[in-house]
């Protein structure tokens, strides 16, 4: 499976978006919980926006999972013995495993 350089960079940006979103989401949640919550807090004032964004990020994670597993089993860059291990890593630890897999097998 051959990918051009701009597509590889786009995949990296999409791969890094969910962990970045997760970090920002936890920051806003914990900052709202650590002080006395008010109606004007960002998470409460814009709950519908957070809910929609959360759904979009979950759909993005599913699409990335499908892409990485299909890429994993179609590429010759990964040893045959490591493909099952990588598939398990991608399913179990996607936010960490996807950027590592991208760097080792998609980018190079």
Name the helix and strand elements from N-terminus to C-terminus, one letter apiece: HHHHH
Number of strands: 0
Could you name the ranges where pLDDT drops below 50 across 5 or more consecutive residues?
A: none
Distance between the termini: 13 Å
Mean pLDDT comes to: 90
The level of helicity is: over 70%
The structural domain count equals 1
Number of helices: 5
Radius of gyration, CA atoms, in whole angstroms: 17 Å
Structural class: mainly alpha
Put the structure in a nutshell:
The chain contains five helices and no strands.
General description of the model:
It is elongated and about 55 Å long. The protein has helices spanning 5-34, 42-45, 47-74, 80-92, 94-107. The protein is mainly α. 82% of the residues lie in helices and 0% in strands. The protein has one domain (5-107).
């Amino acid at each position: 499976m051959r990918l051009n350089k701009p597509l590889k960079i786009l995949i990296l940006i999409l791969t890094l978006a969910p962990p970045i979103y997760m970090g920002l989401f936890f920051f806003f949640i914990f900052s709202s919980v650590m002080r006395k919550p008010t109606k004007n807090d960002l998470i409460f004032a814009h709950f519908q926006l957070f809910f929609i964004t959360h759904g979009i990020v979950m759909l993005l994670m599913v699409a990335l999972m499908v892409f990485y597993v299909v890429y994993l089993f179609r590429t010759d860059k990964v040893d045959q013995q490591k493909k099952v291990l990588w598939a398990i890593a991608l399913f179990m630890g996607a936010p960490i495993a996807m950027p590592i897999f991208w760097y080792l097998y998609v980018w190079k």
